[in-house]
Amino acid sequence: MSECEKRLDALAATVARLRQELAESQEAAETRALVGIATGILVERGHGGPTEAAHHLEELAEAAGLPLPELAADIVNGAAGDEVAAAFSRPSTSSDDGGQHTSPAVLRLRSAEAGALTEDPQSVVDTLIEQVLAPLGASAVALWTVTSGGALALAGHAGFPRGEASRWRYVPPGVGVPAQRVVAERHPQWFGQMPAEVPGIGKRHGSDGARAVLPAELAGRILGVLEVCWPHPRPPLPAPVGRQLNALADLCAHTLPDSQATAAGPAEDPVVPENALMDLADGLLDPVLVLRPLLDEHDHVVDFAIAYVNERFADPAGRPRSMITGLRLLEAYPLAAREGGLYEHVLRVHATGEPFRAERTALTTLADDRSITGIATVGIGRYGDAVLLSWRLENEAARLAALLEHVQRLGRIGGFQQDVISGEILWDSQLFSLFGRPPTAAPVPLERLAEHAHPDDSVAIGRFLRTLLHHRHSASTAFRLRRTDGAMRHMRVVAEPVADPAGRLLAVRGAYQDFSTQHWTEVALAATRDKLADTEQQAEERNRLALQLQRAIMPSSPAPVDITGLHVAVRYRPAEEGHLVGGDWYDAVVLPGKKVLLAVGDVAGHGIEAATGMVVLRNALRGLAATGCGPAQLLGWLNSVAHHLTEHVTATVVCGIYDPVTQTLRWARAGHPPPVLIRDGEATALPLPGGILLGAVAEARYEEHRIDLSSGDRLMMYTDGLIERRDTSVEKSLEQLLAIAGAAPPELGEHLDLLLTHARSDTDDDTCLIGIDVN
């Protein structure tokens, strides 16, 4: 073996020996702490002083035949009031003599508790993971210190991969890690499995199993957070184990910064002497209460003592500061205990250290059995173990000033005052914003206002200044402001002179208002009005032309005519609204073969488009009828005209060809109501042949019916304006028409007038009606 290898072996042996000595020393320290806790319990139970209690503990161990650490653990376990060790490991084991020995889990648990009172944070974490948490299956643990503003600092860690701790050495406020959630909500949290969206230490290395996150509290303050990690998801821990973990977290608080000052607790005497904290309160301009926490036997905060009140204190109930000093917070202000009230905010600030501030908070106090509410701005901050509570009550002047400020902001108004003698100019903050100038810039004097305005407005500004400064009358004017940022704003300035009793001008005060939004709104409205008027004029002209075109082709009541064995009368009633010129039309013309074309149609829509569409279809039907084809063929061709040769015109038509020789009527329809035949005083609707309205499809087929007419028969053809109603079906309206048409007067024109008079249509549509008597 070489000399180098011998040196390495000797070094390794030395390291191993030092490690063993360190482990033994740590175990001895934990044992001494555990024995010390048990001795303290015996002193508390009346077994003399510490020396007598220590001797008594040794005698008990010797009499019971137990090692001193095991007996000390039993005493501490009994004083704890629960059997949490059973949840950690197996039950107590029996000795050879039949006695019960404390289990190794209990020793590990109590040793960890004792170590938490004597070691630094990193040593405590190492002890916890080795003695207590590893038997529970935990793989890692982190101990956080809560710093100012809700930030976290990693005080100790174990079980995380190399380099992970350095990444999480400091966590800024607002990151949302589990420890920060626990600080904000002030109670433990259990994650059966870490959510994917929640960041946390160790997550990128697969540590997304279960986690227990527990606040480390001491004297009512959350000094840190204990975070225990399991490698895999798991159900919640048993209740006893959870309680013990909470206790261990609180023990960890003793090792964190500021724990010694907190453990000292509040002073028993509420009259606190002058010190740095009181000097700080006296140096503030607002009323300040210095509060110190009052703890119960479990170190829980039950209230706060008002330890000091500075000279600027103003009580909402009007009580002097001497009456408030020394009281409890809930005693002085019992209504502060309401949910979400002042006491809850004080408690949270004391526990977490995060400051609180709120404007326009209602402070309600009791005075002579009645509640008094004041509006105040409240600020709460923690200074060491104490809490500083300050508020500023709003008086009438402050409320009116705040109201005026909001009114100026909403109305975009800024006030000014200019001293004529000294030249001093006073602007409010809103006016600097309106002019686009920083608050540090010099205000613009009235005499130089024209330099900041559009050149075209200089005359109006000059007239305003002459009226104000020379004639000493109130004046106002509007101008366009050129701001330093290049924007052009429309402004209005109103001012009045201020004079002394002798009439000498002392100052000018007034206000500027930015009415750019109103100006551009008025410009837009004016442009809209002009456009609307132009549109209305165009629409009126179009309707007038459409009405003229319609009346030229479709006179309202043409004289009755006799056509080869037929007596024909027509009535046309336009829509009630003048702008609703429709596309209803009719035709009765003798064809080259002495046959008669009878047609009634209705083009969809209103206005010039409907009128021109009516002209196209009427003239096209006349031309197609000259071919001598039947009505079904004519409608097929007319459908092609409507679909291909017009601008999306659709229409309904009923078309008939009457042969005076045979007195036969061949007819077809395209989506139109049926003609009505009146024979021997009875009116009936002709059966409907099939046929879709014109223009709906490119190719359409139409059926044709034939009816033999006799002398004395009367036939009515009409558009839907005669029968349509909004609240009645077409079938019912047709029945009403047949009932009226059956009681027919002998003269055809009177019959048509009767039908128009009793027509009950309410759709503002045109009505076209043709009556045909067979001679």
TrEMBL record:
Keyword list, A-Z: Coiled coil, Hydrolase, Transcription, Transcription regulation
Coiled-coil regions, chain positions: 1-28, 525-552
GO MF: phosphatase activity; RNA binding
Protein name: Putative magnesium or manganese-dependent protein phosphatase
Signal peptide: none
Highest taxon of source: Bacteria
CDD domains in alphabetical order: PAS
UniProt cross-references to SUPFAM superfamilies, sorted A to Z: GAF domain-like (SSF55781), PP2C-like (SSF81606), PYP-like sensor domain (PAS domain) (SSF55785)
Domain PAC per the UniProt entry, residue ranges: 475-527
Keyword Lyase in record: no
Keyword set includes Glycoprotein: no
PANTHER family for this protein: STAGE II SPORULATION PROTEIN E, STAGE II SPORULATION PROTEIN E-RELATED
InterPro entries: ANTAR (IPR005561), Bact_Sigma-Reg (IPR052016), GAF (IPR003018), GAF-like_dom_sf (IPR029016), PAS (IPR000014), PAS-assoc_C (IPR000700), PAS-like_dom_sf (IPR035965), PAS_fold_3 (IPR013655)
Domain ANTAR: 15-76
